[in-house]
Amino acid sequence: MSFVAQKKLTVFDWVNYTLLALISLLCVFPFIYVFAVSFTDPKVYVPLQFYVIPEKWSLAAYQYILSTNTFMNALGNTVFVTLVGTVFNLIVSFSLAYALTKKGMPGRNLILNFVIFTLVFNAGLVPNYLLVKELGLLNSLWSLIWPSLTNAWSLIVIKSFLESLPSELEDSGRIDGCSDLGVFLRIIVPLSMPAVAAFTLFFAVSHWNTYFNALIYLSDSKKWTLQVLVKSLVIDSDSNGVGQAGSVSDDRVLPQETIRMAAIVLSMVPILVVYPFLQKYFAKGVMLGSIKG
Amino acid sequence: MKSATQFNGATGAAVRRRGYWSRLGGRMAQHKYMYLLAFPGIVYFLVFKFVPLWGLLIAFMEYSPYTGILGSKWVGVKFFAEMFRDERFYLMLRNTFAINLFGIVFMFPVPIILALMLNEVRHEVFKRLNQSIVYMPHFLSWVVVASMTFFLLSTDVGIVNKLIASAGGEPVSFLTNPNYFWALLTLQNMWKEAGWGTIIFLAAMAGVDPQRYEAAVVDGANRWRQIWHITLPAIRPTIIILLILRLGHMADVGFEQVLLMLNPLVISVGEVFDTFAYTQGILRGQISIGVTVGMFKGLVGLVLVLASNYIVKKMGHEGIY
């Protein structure tokens, strides 16, 4: 809304701005607290003292946590699942979605209807668990990759994006002698880069944040992902919660809170780093999804 | 004569059929690369979405992991009958309904109000800054949100309880008192998703012709009247569609969220179908019970979603499916 005529801030504006500022503060408050405690020097840390900025900065909690095998292991597992899972997600989703745009393809409606059916009904978590078990994927990181190779919502959004591309480009590619595969790889994929970017972020965030599947499929703590580890450190923690995190026995020196909050911060750093991109592309993705193709 | 027509008819059909099959074969050959592209996705849906549907048969048998589905004994609807007799079933039904009711009454209007507030901001930088901040929690995992909740609200390490104590109050067991559980889930949801939920409303608001506001100003309408008579009517269809679709998800609860916040003290208000299926079916190995409960929830969800989508379509809007 551009009101050139009304530039003066009214009481309405002041109230509105103040309320919005308070809401934003409420949103960032937990972040600030967790950040501040995680960077506080353990020697001066007073439990339950409210910090906005650390009294004395220190990386001790981070040094400790990054030196533990458990954490580094979980980090490695999470990075593996996120990278490999996202690449597979993109390949499978875009190629199936492109095939589904071909209205003349025999069997297309059958596939499409089944995809839509999975959007409204699924067998529930026990049958899915049994399947993963039967496939021998329990305690394998692939159990976080194969069962979520693609999903109906993404396919439908990508399909409607691909349908919005001008079909003349495909025709011109064909005239130039490209096969269907060539058209897909040389014309469709390069034109789909905005959607690829959005879905790269979407798939990556969803892999990074997955908790429940990792919890049920990976019981071996060597295979744990960051989310499972953070949950066990913070929520299941009792006095020996962090003791399990490493072989070093000096965890008596470091207050538990600084370590636990450092673990939380580390588990969300990648998300916060890509956040500016996330915001831009995700907001577009949401709108893409709401406009039905 | 009669047999001749039959004969002719049969050949005609055969020719037509052959024509159909050869055309189909031709179309399939024409799309051979499409099948190649679709192949991994099709295999995925067959293996990970279609095969588990057969697992639903387990709800009707005394399943033993050693004999598998083929070797297990059929028991008909025994587990369904047991489920309907179990008082925990009605507890789960109530909790699912209550958590959703809290969500609809207290959470649903929040993104609308927040979007209205953001829409009234004329200072672009302030608006964008606010949007960036309120969208952010959406991208965090439930584990992170639950961990932060723990450091804010628990009685031993929660900073809020520390503040209450320093103000001379008694510590409040936010996380273990059943009275607070539904409100706690709703507040977490609000913190995480309210900002993100504004996007769709802001987009609808952006579609309003600015001239309508200018005309309203000329007519002497203040800001409240502009919101009431122009902005809200403009987003009314969006609100109605989203509300109906939300009602279609009454069988769903944020499963990871509930599981993370659940503890023995709040199990009576926090147990829902998915958490029950998880603890009974996976942790305790009572596979058939877990499948039955999951199937019940899935079927109720299916009916609700189809009904809500049907209503949206009846109202002349495009449905989701």
CATH topology-level fold name of chain A: MetI-like fold
Order of helices and strands of chain A: HHHHHHHHHHHH
The CATH class label of chain A is Mainly Alpha
CATH-scheme architecture of chain A: Orthogonal Bundle
* CATH-level-4 superfamily name of chain A: MetI-like
Q: Please give the alpha-carbon distance between the first and last residues of chain B.
A: 52 Å
Taking pLDDT < 50 over at least 5 consecutive residues as the criterion, the unreliable ranges of chain A are 1-5, 238-252
Could you tell me the strand content of chain A as a percent range? Answer: under 5%
CATH superfamily of the largest domain in chain B: MetI-like
Global geometry of chain A? globular
Major sheet of chain B, described briefly?
A: 2 strands, antiparallel
CATH topology of the largest domain in chain B: MetI-like fold
The pLDDT mean of chain B sits at 91
Distance between the termini of chain A: 29 Å
Beta-strand residue fraction of chain B:
under 5%
Number of strands of chain A: 0
Secondary-structure element pattern of chain B, one letter each: HHEHEHHHHHHHHHHHHH
